[in-house]
Write a structure and sequence with these properties.
125 residues; mainly alpha; two-stranded antiparallel ribbon; 5 helices
């Protein structure tokens, strides 16, 4: 009657959903990093990823002008996701982050997070 047990089908679907979550979270992280204005790289370095709970704090001594270390750190958290239905939060606790999101920087006049979210919403409609 069945070619495969239904439990195997469920496992396949859960893996596909998990992979989709990882992919979208990775795109979101890369988006906010690349859209971040850069002076000394402090804002760019302070993007954090939390999966199902709290993540890191703001660190004024953290600098990453290119964003590679920040992307690597966040992707290591995203890549560790093993279940399909988790909340992934990408955030930045910089004290001037809201001003940047409101268009304070000429490098990112439309903001960072809102523009990234709009781009992802358009892509995955």
């Amino acid at each position: 009657m069945w070619d495969r047990r239904p439990t195997l089908f469920i496992e396949d679907v859960e893996k596909q959903i998990t992979d989709g979550v990882k992919g979208m979270a990775g795109e979101a992280l890369a988006g906010v990093i690349t859209r971040s204005p850069v002076d000394e790289g402090t804002f760019r370095a302070n993007h954090r990823v939390a999966v199902g709970g709290d993540g890191g704090e703001y660190d004024a001594s953290d600098h990453d002008e290119q964003g590679n270390a920040t992307l690597d750190r966040g992707m290591s958290i995203i890549d560790a996701i093993e279940t399909p239905f988790v909340r992934v939060t990408i955030y930045n606790l910089s004290p001037y982050g809201q001003r940047l999101e409101d268009g304070w920087s000429q490098q990112a006049p439309g903001g960072i997070y809102e523009v990234t979210a709009a781009s992802l919403q358009e892509k995955y409609r």
